[in-house]
Amino acid sequence: MSPQSRVWLAGGLFAAVIAAALYFPALRHQVRNAAQLTEKTAEQARRELLPVTPTAGSEPKVKVKMFWGSGNDDGLLRPVTVELPLSDDPVLRAKEVLNTLLAGPVDPEARTLPPDAALLAFYILPDGTAIADFSEALGTSIPSGIQSEQLAIDSIARTLEANVPQVQRIKILIHGQEVETLAGHIDLTQTFRVNTKVPGAPVPPAPSAVSVITAPIEKAVQKVENAVKR
Amino acid sequence: MLDPAHGGVDLGARGTEGIRESEVVLVFAAEVRKALEAQGFQVVMTREGNDNPSFDDRSARANAQHGAVFVTLHIASTGVAGSVRVYVVPDIPPSNDATGLIPWDRAQGPYIGLSHKLGDLVQAELAKRFRGSPDTALVAPVRQLRTTAAPAIAVEISSVTVPDRADLDHMVPGVAEAIAHGIVAFKPSYVLPVPSGTPGAAQP
Fold first, then answer.
1. If you ran DSSP here, which 8-state letter would residue A153 be given?
2. What mean pLDDT do residues B62-91 have?
3. What phi and psi values does residue B81 have, to the nearest 5 degrees?
4. Within a domain: residue A18?
5. A185, A206 in Cβ contact below 8 A?
6. Model confidence over A101-141: pLDDT tens digits?
7. Is B76 in the A-facing interface, judged by CB distances under 8 Å?
8. For the residues of B101-158, what is the DSSP string, one character each?
9. Are A194 and A161 in contact (CB under 8 A)?
């Protein structure tokens, strides 16, 4: 190799080293960003797709009765009055009180729902049946057991009864799907009675805390499932 | 019919000291079985090892027996330590089926009155032995009970969060005795309900 070729080769190698030194930090930054994107869970992606619930910050604050646990591990609920800006719209109002219920009380021992659970969607059908779609954490993070699962359902039903009189019963979905139980015990295939004292509302046929699934609920479940698929 | 809940990959409730509901209920079930057999009852278990039959499989085994009572055993994650609660399902609306056949998911419907009677009797026995237990059975839509065509109760013991597994082991004889005494007291009032639509069925 001639001396001139060696100079050209050395120059080329030097230029390649400089280019690599400049490019690698940028490449590392891009790889990190890509990794962060792939770490997003399907649930996070779903939450981003859902319409943002309008905040009721401009609404006047009203006294709201929330039903959290007694904090004594006795399976009982205790009403707590808090002040919240609430919408007059029953769906927005229900979302606001359920999100407050999920946020939890001051005393963590009185919590009835897991802190990492989220309300993904909420509808009210014309017959007064509400459909509440929660994230998977509602079932996976709740302490397993008849008492703890029943307390969670009761806290949802009693809080809605106290603050959203339009809701007569509630159907609970997990991530858009009907599931057999909340965490292995309490039956989620049926609806839970919330409020039967609505003026003019039809009285359900049996004095049951649970009623059978009706066609409108199945349609609503299908609607939520389709939203998940999209 | 005795049903130790969970099993297999389903460990049920888990305590901080490594206590697993699926294992502990087998210990309770074995003792309840002995107490019932001592009273002259024939006992069938939904599982005796670490397997996990489905809800429907467990109910199907019970529904194949004639004149059975069904007791599903659970250890809670919560509750006052050392207390025991009995649960029965809420009322189930009757079926409108003209054939008189009862849909699978409403199998418990005709037996709810008997389940309340059985539940109250067993709960009263438990309340005598375990402080902090309620005096009468509680109502909750327990999935396992809904498809069971027999007087059916869930017994839930608190809890897997006890500081020492021995705290639960000490409860085993008392729970077994209470369930056996409750079922003995229930036996005279156990008359199988007559399906609606059949000759001899009660008319409204």
1. H
2. 96
3. -55, 130
4. no
5. no
6. 999 998 999 999 999 999 999 999 999 999 999 999 999 99
7. yes
8. PPPGGGTTGGGHHHHHHHHHHHHHHHHHHSTT--SS-EE--BHHHHT--S-EEEEEES
9. yes
Q: Is the pLDDT of residue B124 over 70?
A: yes
Structural domain containing residue A194:
49-229
What's the one-letter identity of residue B122? V
- In whole angstroms, give the CA distance from residue A138 to residue A135: 6
Instruction: Say how many domains are in chain A.
Output: 1
Q: What is the DSSP letter of B20?
A: B
Asked if B85 lies within 8 A of A208 by C-beta distance, the reply is no
Residues of chain A positioned with their CB less than 8 A from the CB of B141: 186-187, 190, 192, 209-210
Sign of CA dihedral B192, B133, B168, A147: positive
CB contact under 8 A, A145 and B76: yes
Q: Is residue A12 part of a domain?
A: no
For chain B, say whether A140 makes contact (Cβ under 8 Å).
no
Higher-scoring residue by pLDDT: B55, A226: B55
Segment B123-148 shows an average pLDDT of 97
Let me know if residue A14 belongs to a domain: no
Contact status of B139 with chain A (Cβ, < 8 Å): yes
The single residue listed with the structure tokens 């199998």 is B107
* B156, β-bridge pairs: B74, B85
Q: How far apart are CA B179 and CA B176, in angstroms?
A: 5
When CB atoms are compared, the residue of B78, B87, B90 closest to A148 is B78
pLDDT classification of B3: cutoffs 50, 70, 90: very high
ipTM of the complex: 0.93
The conformation of residue A108, written as its DSSP 8-state character, comes to G
Measured at the CA of A46, the angle between CA A45 and CA A49, to 5 degrees, comes to 95
Residue A175 backbone class (left: φ over 0; alpha: ψ -120 to 50; beta: rest): left
pLDDT grade, residue A21 (50/70/90)?
Answer: confident
Q: What is the rounded distance in angstroms from the CA atom of residue A8 to the CA atom of residue B172?
A: 88
Distance from CA of A157 to the nearest CA of B (A): 14
Interface of A with B in 71-100 (CB under 8 A): 72-75
Evaluate whether residue A221 is within a structural domain.
yes
Structural domains present in chain B:
2-189 (3.40.630.40)
Quote the minimal CA–CA distance from B40 to chain A in Å.
30
Interchain CB distance below 8 Å, A145 and B77 = yes
